[in-house]
Amino acid sequence: MSINKARLRQLHSMLAPIMVLPILLTLITGLFYQMADVADKEADFFWLLELHKGNFGPLNLEVIYPFLNALGLFTLAITGITLWFQTPRRHLRS
Predict the structure, then answer these.
(1) Among residues 56, 5, 49, which one has the least CA distance to residue 30?
(2) Is 42 helix (H, G, I), strand (E, B) or coil?
(3) Quick check: 61 and 55 in contact, CB under 8 A?
(4) Alpha-helical runs (H) found in the chain
(5) Helix orientation angle between 46-53 and 5-38, rounded to the nearest 10 degrees
(6) pLDDT single digits (tens) 46-85
(7) Coil, strand or helix: which one is 59?
(8) Neighbours of 77 (CB within 10 A)
């Protein structure tokens, strides 16, 4: 079964800019909350954990945010790896 490289590239390039913000938000909030936890200051930075889980004040996405984040990241990984394997390799000459 042949995968249409143009459609795969289109899906990957369309999804990448959309997923940058949620992935960076998850990465940064998780990192800083972990640092606060190690310093025994987690009570002061509980708001970071709320953001990390997808609770954005009036917009509470805690139920679906992790699944959307995981689905987007998984799709980017699969499309990226597939495109990478479809790229012709150049052999170095000695």
Answers:
(1) 49
(2) helix
(3) yes
(4) 5-38, 46-53, 65-86
(5) 160
(6) 899 999 999 998 999 999 999 999 999 999 999 999 888 8
(7) strand
(8) 11
CA distance 56 to 16: 22
Can you read off the two tokens belonging to residue 25?
């938000």
DSSP run (H or E) holding 56: strand 55-56
Strand partners, 56: 59
Q: Is the CA virtual torsion 79, 1, 3, 84 positive or negative?
A: positive
Place of tokens 């799709």: 75
Q: How many CA atoms lie within 13 A of 76 on its CB side?
A: 15
Helix (H, G, I), strand (E, B) or coil at 29: helix
- Tokens 């009036």 belong to 58
Model's pTM, two decimal places?
Answer: 0.73
Q: Which amino acid is at 17?
A: P
Farthest CA pair distance, the chain:
62
